[in-house]
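Checklist before submission:
- one chain only
- standard amino acids only
- sequence pasted in full

Submission:
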Amino acid sequence: MRVLPHERSLLEKDPAKNEGRANERASKGPPGKPRENNGNRARENSGKENSKESNHRQQLHTPVPDSAAESPPVIGRQEVVAIALVGLLLIAIVAVLYFAKAFFLPVVMAFVVGTMLSPAAALLERVKIPRPVGSVLIVLAVGALGAFIVGLIASPVVEWSNRLPELGARLKDKLHIFDRPLALWQELQGMLGGSDPLATFQLPKFEWVQPTLEFLSPTFAEFLLFFATLVLFIASWKDLRRAMIMTFGDRPSRLRTLRILNEIEEHLGGYLLTVTMINVGVGIATGIVCALAGMPNPAGLGALAATLNYLPYIGPVAMFAVLVVVGIISFPTLSGAMVAPMVFVAIAFLEGHFVTPTIIGRRLELNALAVLLALAFWTWLWGPMGGFLSSPLLIVALILKEHLMPVDSPQRPGD
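Returned file contents:
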């Protein structure tokens, strides 16, 4: 084909036509080669174009990930409502327990003590003593032991309460040994220009004795409700166990309930026996120390030490204060008055840091912070009896948590 000069300029100005003609020449191929290669190339080019088009379509249909600003909140509105409802339920339960203390305290006390004493009823049942009779015998034995301890403690308390004005004046006279430290403190306060809070210091009046005794001692109706509930609970504990187990329909739930009840009974019974033996040892050691130091009524002080030791942390501190006051009243010198209290501090330290953790820690691990918080809560809620119930209730709560909310428990297939 002959191309004129003006046509060559047209071809150079229209590149699209040049490209089309070049493709047409490429499709025809050089002379001497078959046309099949050209067809293969066309198919390869069309396949590449199709793959590019499909990739482009996939990119168009792929969802764009949400940005951080549009992510949903970790705690939604439903979770907040559920947490608020649970909090209101807990507040309502605490309020009911606080204002209905006259009913709930004896009942819960009877349930806990009855669970602790149920192994003794089972032991009497093995020696052919019927369970109702055994429950009455156990409650009578516990009542006699409690009356004996109260008698040991009450005799010096009654004696001292009749001599309160005399003992108060004697204690005030003995506190003159602190005149020199107080004078130094007053001088320091004067140099600093502050007011002296000790200038108006006076011994507390004895008007608090009657409200304190009313707070510490429950009413006769509460005592009667406690003993009646305790006898009936121990006598019917087997039937109650069976009823609680048979409440559930499936076998795994029944087995779990049986394990929980057995473990609660075993741990509470072991806790009562172990703590009672430890406290008896503390009371005997305190009585011997008081007798050797020349303190008045060492048997009553030993019984008081054993009784107060049922209250963790609070009991030993209260017993130390009692020994200090009795020592200051009974001895002419401060050094002689502090012998028995300091030896009691050593006894309480050994018992609290070595004896009790070694024995009870093998049965059930109790966190010190959890024990302190439970003691503070139940003492605030129900007084000294609540402080006694704090550790058993904490043990029950830990057992329920272990069985109902196990940690790293293997899951069955299909769960």
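Reviewer check: The two ends are 83 Å apart (CA to CA).
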